[in-house]
Amino acid sequence: MLKAYVSMVNDMSERIPRDRDIELENIIGNLMIAEYQVDRLQSRLSERVGGLGSGSNKKSSSFVFKKNDKWYRVTLSVEEMTNINIIDDVT
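Above: the chain sequence. Below: its structure as tokens.
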């Protein structure tokens, strides 16, 4: 039964035109992966800020690095916001 199904799928795929844009398919695939990663990271961040993901109350983080003999520090601070009104500026 599986051989018959595979044969049927192969026959169908032979009738599909082969003018595919591989670069476009790669871009779309990368976009889908990026959307998944953004969603996953947003979930992790909201859990951490909301107190579900960590026992600590830290809501900021710093990263220090050196580039071209100069030191840089990047500090991120996250806070949960409630009762905000977001206005979509669609023109």
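The first strand starts at residue 60 and ends at 67.
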